Amino acid sequence: MLGIFSKTNDSNFIEAAGLSGLDFIILDQEHGSVTNDRLFDHIRAAHVTSMKAIVRVKELNHNEIGSALDAGADGVQIPNISTPEEAKMAIEAARFFPLGKRGICRFVKAANYGLKDRNEYFTSENTKLIVLQVEGQKGIDNIDEILLIPGFDILFVGPYDLSQSLGIPGQINHPILINNLREVARKATAKKIRLGTFSDNIQHAKLMRDIGFKYIAFSVDINLFSVACNNLLNDLS
Questions:
Q1: How far separated are the first and last CA of the chain, in Å rounded?
Q2: What CA–CA distances, in Å, run from 110 to 69, 120, 189?
């Protein structure tokens, strides 16, 4: 699966990304300025196409996770997961009983503002994607225990934050980092857990795919636009 991160506040960018054929877009509330109000329009724009709208919430927080799903997101990405206990908390926040403890309100966008059959709503919401983001040395150290936690769909490794944690900030091609990613991929693949990561150049994306990362978020919408404009200027100069 191929997608991008989004930091724009213009929902037209979201729709255009979906029309391009991308599989998913990650609406970034952790490092972006996407408010909950804007989230509704972004998700609606994604759903005009076949692209999945995933929300990366600011932090491991029950209310933020529930709000993103209430807004109709197809999944949530929870950053900075470092322990199996945190993995359990994230899953509980995103799932209704018996799989979790997500707060219930069936008069939200995800439930068609109360028009959706309540049983169908509770059942379908428990199939939304849960992406656990591991991005530090502590998370890597606890990866065996995290992988044992049932109920999440994708283990996402953030290479930039991990590089900083390893003392090689920004060096996402450094052998130490690549070896860590290979080891995570080996363990996750053995347990048939889907892997995701971020890339900002084609060579790195291909390497990650070859290692075993099949859910790849490539760069950021605004950066892709600015790079395209810059290339245009250079090509015509």
A1: 36
A2: 7, 11, 32
The angle that helices 11-19 and 36-47 make with each other, rounded to 10 degrees, is 30
Predicted confidence at residue 154, as pLDDT, reads 98
Please count the CA atoms within 13 angstroms of the CA of 8 that sit on its side-chain side.
24
Report helix, strand or coil for 34.
coil
Please give the distance of CA 229 from its chain centroid, rounded to a whole number.
27
| Secondary structure (3-state) at 165 | helix
Q: How far is CA 11 from CA 6, 71, 82, 98, in A?
A: 10, 15, 33, 35
> From the CB of residue 118, how many other CB atoms can be counted at a distance below 10 Å?
11
Q: Which domains does the chain have, with CATH numbers?
A: 2-236 (3.20.20.60)
235: tokens are 């090509």
Per-residue pLDDT for 139 more than 90? Answer: yes
Residue 237 in this model has a pLDDT that exceeds 90: no
